[in-house]
Amino acid sequence: MNIRRLYSGAVGFRKELDSLLRWNAREDPHVANLAQEIIDQVRKEGDSSVLNLCRKYDKVYSETVLDLAIDQSELRSAFEEIPEKDSDALVQAANRIEKYHRAQKQGDFQITDDSGNNIGQIVTALDRVGVYVPGGQAAYPSSVLMTVIPATVAGVSEIAVAVPTPQGQRNSHVLAALHITGVREVYSIGGAQAVAAMAYGTETIRKVDKIVGPGGAIVAAAKRLVYGPVGIDMIAGPSEVLIIADPTANPDWVALDLFSQAEHGENSQSILLCPDENFLRLVEESMERHIDSLSRKNIIVKSLETRGAFVLTKDLEEAVAISNIIAPEHLQLAVAKPRKLMQQVRHAGAIFLGVKTPEVLGDYSAGPSHVLPTFGTARYSSPLGVYDFQKRSSVIECVPEGLNDVASIAAVIADMEGLTAHASAARARIRD
Questions:
Q1: Which of 61, 157, 172, 227 shows a CA-CA span of 20 to 30 A to 259?
Q2: What is the extent of the structural domain holding 417?
Q3: The domain that contains 8 carries what CATH number?
Q4: What local confidence, expressed as pLDDT, does residue 216 receive?
């Protein structure tokens, strides 16, 4: 494998780093145009367009959209038919995910100001949410758990799930995961047509308030286009891992962690930062030894050669500084003192502490949702969580003895802004 080598002390390093990350800024106009065409068609024609698009893109032939719905009995049968070790693993993962997200729930609060007025906040769940479960190239039962469970914990009363079923093939593990979550509304629809149907509604599918969940380029483009009429969680890009390692790490483990991210797809990004050149060499040698044993070897090699990199840094502190520039989706601190190093981390979707905590645990079983900000958006956004399915309302209640203070302040500021009606409305409440 020919993996790019960068040296943080070299002239032009930042330019090379920007080049490595440049894919993130690209947007295929053909994909965006196609997504817009599909959305416009679904908005105009409703159910009939969904059926036509499912035939065209997924080779799924149905007479009505109701035929695309997957009922509870099929979900239950799938759960009962998969191997017991598989169903046990899904149930255990679901329990861990639920426990973690219950700790995220936000509550109401009320405080009394110095004038005796009551101000506070109430937190309410969204009414109806659409969840997109990717499934065009592979099946992801873990994505079912990582999206539906936080919505359920938040108290969302209606959850509609869309999952693509290419050639009409329904994956038993995905259906089993849906059964575990208890979701009651599932459609075998994928792509931009699923996003459009949930965003605007059809004769059969009622519109939702927010759409969450990862997907391919066409799904990301569609989510961007429907934002406004509905909320979205984020625009997900190719998966990323950035590993900061020191010589105490096991080079074989680090090599496998880089492989595990690269096998997501050719556009996935795996980057290793380390201040020890010999350790980088050991990892590279390990990768050469293990690559032939992996079923997705070709994808892994393409990913690592086009978007991967080994970066030799001056020290671990500089490695963290570079990581903060990249703001990775997944950050592994495979070092002797990970908690100390974490204090310098400012931007990362998820942080994995220590050599015994690989990113793969976050994908499946640790507890936090694996739906994370990508391509640098961890600078300003967060992992999917219960808070994505809740909204907050401010609550204000003035009492007679406290009204004068706030009304007088409001009237003066309204005068500053030239809004005389505002000022009059405030002064009308002021008692002599």
A1: 172
A2: 398-427
A3: 3.40.50.1980
A4: 87
